């Protein structure tokens, strides 16, 4: 399990680089205002979305990893990679669609497309239908929360911090009785 954790953390770093590249693209296109439909504020919302993207990837990967531990799911690192790719593609869809149909419509279409793709894929990856619906609900809630955070300007740091605190509490609560040494095959001192 320790090896799996390092694989997941490594994939998080890979997607940080991918999101950084998308961030640079969005920033460049915003600088040149590539679309007549989008104003500078819409580009700023896209850029803020990409900034929150790493939090989304980490939350989804952490949920998958914890589900592996708590529910004995088996998710291969390649499957994490494909899920992360779908999460990253959302930001390219958001940027490219927003330049033609506006930010809100692009966000809704991109989120729906990525959530649908992941829901379909998870039917083949996860052991239970309940797990698929649980992860799909988590994705929908995460994309919804991210949309609200991007739209809020004055309270986004406060709300985002509270949401991250709640997520950390949930992780601590559900893992409070796990013997992490036993999972990693390491002996307790």
Automatic annotation (TrEMBL):
Keywords: Membrane, Transmembrane, Transmembrane helix
Keyword Transmembrane applies: yes
Residue ranges of the TM segments: 6-26, 46-66, 78-98, 105-126, 132-150, 157-175
InterPro entries with a match to the protein in the record: Uncharacterised_IM_CreD (IPR010364)
Keyword Cytoplasm belongs to the record: no
GO cellular component, one term: plasma membrane
Pfam families documented for this protein: CreD
Listed PANTHER family: INNER MEMBRANE PROTEIN CRED
Protein name per the record: Inner membrane protein CreD
The organism of origin for this protein: Eikenella longinqua
